[in-house]
Amino acid sequence: MDNLASRILNLVARLSGQETPALASATPDQAGTEAAYRQALQRWFELTAQGPTGDGEDVAQLYQDLLRLVDDVGEPRASTLRREWARAWWQETGVCPFCGERGVYHDPEQSGEGTA
Ligand SMILES: [Zn+2]
Fold it and tell me: What is the pTM assigned to this prediction?
């Protein structure tokens, strides 16, 4: 019954450049950004699993990419996705995504460990 009111609200939000949460979660741009974020994060987990043998410059570049992608995806969604994908990575590989140790999963949210 508040159909008109919600439409006006949407319009106002669009005009002021602030999307409503419903709109923000469904844009193709957002989906592409999240796919790129996931890819970079997977790469990061792989490097973590390999230990300190990786190329240092490579790691620094990837880290910069990740910082940018976290900005693009936006918090708190970036953290929610990271938790989800970190756990999926662990289930798939059995390697801790945060320190590369095999057979343990250090959940930073649970143990109070800092994030990498
Ligand atoms: Zn760990």
Answer: 0.68
